[in-house]
Design goal:
Blueprint: H1 4-22, H2 26-37, H3 40-63, H4 65-71, H5 73-95, H6 102-107, H7 118-130, H8 133-146, H9 153-178, H10 181-188, H11 192-210
């Protein structure tokens, strides 16, 4: 007979995860930029990268490696500065966007965009999530409170798969909605202005991460 405790653990994890993944942050900003700038395919691949990165957080949380990160101010600082630097780099690249011919935007939005390898789209989502120190603290906090020494590894693996797939599903849904032709056209009508606005947002997120505190 399955212990009801494990179902209650799952309910708490699922609820906390939904509230966390639905809140604005680097992942959402990156998916938004990919959806508008590069379209549905790239945004979906980026979403898959974000979802698979969740497995990294879950793995070190379960193995206890994450506890070392939480207890070491040096390691945590290294992680957050890497994330801040990466977000700032992406933001600067967006700020460098140049105006394109208006007729190109109207007739074929994708034609005026610089090519982005699909592997880069995946890496963008994966690295953004893996380096996010707030994601690290979330999983460490939730897993340390919710899980117990009696929780079987099979259940932990099930939790990990669910959290990964749920994250993918959430951002894939956002990708589908934001990459709809009518929505993309409204943003792309502003051309490079959208890219520059997203660049500012990404840089501000990077600054926010850089000043986040270890609690």
């Amino acid at each position: 007979m399955i212990d009801p405790l494990f179902f209650s653990q799952f309910a708490v994890l699922a609820t906390a995860h939904f509230l966390a993944v639905a809140s604005p942050g680097p992942d959402l900003a990156v998916v938004l930029k990919q959806s508008i700038s590069y379209g549905r395919r790239h945004a979906l691949v980026t979403s898959v990268g974000i979802g698979l990165a969740i497995l990294v957080h879950v793995s070190y949380s379960v193995l206890g490696i994450g506890l070392l990160i939480k207890q070491s101010e040096l390691l945590f600082s290294l992680l957050k500065y890497l994330c801040a630097g990466y977000l700032t780099y992406i933001g600067i690249q967006a700020l460098r966007a140049k105006p394109s011919a208006p007729q190109t935007r109207e007739t074929n939005a994708d034609a005026s965009l610089p090519a982005q390898p699909i592997t880069k789209a995946f890496g963008l989502g994966f690295i953004t999530n893996v380096l996010n120190p707030k994601a690290t603290l979330f999983f460490l906090s939730v897993f340390s409170v919710v899980l117990s020494a009696q929780t079987p590894m099979t259940w932990m693996a099930g939790y990990a798969v669910y959290l990964s797939l749920a994250t993918m599903a959430w951002f894939c849904m956002i990708s589908v909605v934001l990459s709809r032709h009518s929505i993309r056209q409204r943003f792309l009508a502003s051309g490079y202005i959208f890219d520059r606005v997203m660049g500012v947002i990404l840089i501000l997120l990077g600054v926010n991460v850089a000043f986040s505190q270890l609690v």
